[in-house]
User: Which sequence fits this backbone?
C-alpha cells in the first residue's frame, strides 16, 4: 500500500511538471512567436532545468554547438522569470567590431569620441530590471571581460566619457559554443568572470542526438514556412523522413529550419516531399 501511494505521488508530480511545462511554453509562444519542440530524454532534462532556474535570480551559462537554440532557451528563462515584464536585451560578441563593442555594451556620453554626437545608453543600462543576453561570450576580448566583471560585482555602470555612476539590476545569461575552460587555460578568458557568470549551467544537445525530434520539428517549421509562403501544407513521406534522420545536421536546428524553407519553395507545387 505504501509503495502504491509513493508511486501515485510520483505520477502526480510528473503530471504537474508536464502541465507546468505546457503553460510555460504557451507563455513563450505568446510572447515571442517561437516554440521549443521535442520530447527526447535529453531535452526533457533541459526543460526541467529551465523551469527550475527561471524563478531564481542567478546568472546562467548556456553551452552548445552553433544552431542548437541557445538564444531561444535564454528567452524562455527570461519570459518564465519574475523579470518577464522587463526588457530582454541581446548582444552578440562576434557581430560587433571590437572597436565598437565597448560603446555598445556601456554606452557613451556626447563628445566621448569623434562620432559621439549625442548621449547613448549601452546594452547593460537598457537591460535594467530585465535580462542581458551575451551571445558567443567566449570571443569577448580580455579588457572588456575585466570591465564586465566589475559591473557584475558592483552592480553599477558608467557610460564612456562620463563620471556618472548608474546602478543597474539585471540578470545575465551568456551563451558559448566553445569550451570556456580551454580558453581559460589558454589565457584568453578570465577565470573569475567565468565563475561569476556560471552560477548555473545548461548544456544543449546537438540535433544528431535528438533524431526522434526531427519529425515534429520539421512539421513545425514546414507549417510556419507554408504559411509565410502562402502555399498549402505539404506531406512528408516516410522515405524523406528516413533520409532526414540519416543526416548528421552539423548546423543543428538552424540548418534544419533553413532546409525546410528551401524544400517548401522547391515543392510548392507538389503535395508530398520525397527524398
Assistant:
Amino acid at each position: 500500500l505504501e509503495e502504491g501511494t509513493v508511486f501515485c505521488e510520483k505520477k502526480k508530480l510528473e503530471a504537474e511538471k508536464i502541465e507546468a511545462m505546457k503553460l510555460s511554453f504557451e507563455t513563450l509562444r505568446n510572447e515571442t512567436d517561437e516554440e521549443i519542440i521535442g520530447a527526447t530524454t535529453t531535452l526533457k532534462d533541459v526543460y526541467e532545468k529551465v523551469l527550475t532556474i527561471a524563478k531564481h535570480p542567478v546568472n546562467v551559462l548556456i553551452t552548445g554547438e552553433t544552431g542548437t537554440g541557445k538564444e531561444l532557451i535564454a528567452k524562455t528563462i527570461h519570459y518564465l522569470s519574475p523579470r518577464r515584464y522587463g526588457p530582454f536585451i541581446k548582444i552578440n560578441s562576434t557581430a560587433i567590431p571590437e572597436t565598437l563593442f565597448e560603446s555598445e555594451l556601456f554606452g557613451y556620453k556626447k563628445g566621448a569620441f569623434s562620432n559621439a554626437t549625442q548621449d547613448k545608453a549601452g546594452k547593460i543600462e537598457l537591460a535594467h530590471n530585465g535580462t542581458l543576453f551575451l551571445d558567443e561570450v567566449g570571443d569577448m576580448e580580455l579588457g572588456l571581460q575585466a570591465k564586465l566583471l566589475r559591473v557584475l560585482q558592483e552592480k553599477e555602470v558608467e557610460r564612456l566619457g562620463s563620471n556618472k555612476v548608474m546602478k543597474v539590476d539585471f540578470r545575465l545569461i551568456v551563451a558559448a559554443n566553445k569550451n570556456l575552460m580551454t580558453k581559460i587555460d589558454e589565457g584568453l578568458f578570465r577565470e573569475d568572470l567565468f565563475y561569476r557568470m556560471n552560477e548555473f549551467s545548461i548544456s544543449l544537445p546537438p540535433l544528431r542526438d535528438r533524431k526522434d525530434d526531427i519529425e515534429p520539428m520539421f512539421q513545425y517549421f514546414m507549417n510556419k514556412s507554408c504559411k509565410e509562403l502562402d502555399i498549402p501544407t505539404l506531406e512528408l513521406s516516410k522515405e524523406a523522413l528516413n533520409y532526414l534522420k540519416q543526416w548528421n545536421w552539423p548546423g543543428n536546428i538552424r540548418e534544419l529550419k533553413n532546409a525546410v524553407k528551401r524544400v517548401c519553395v522547391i515543392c510548392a507545387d507538389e503535395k508530398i516531399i520525397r527524398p
Notes: The two ends are 54 Å apart (CA to CA).
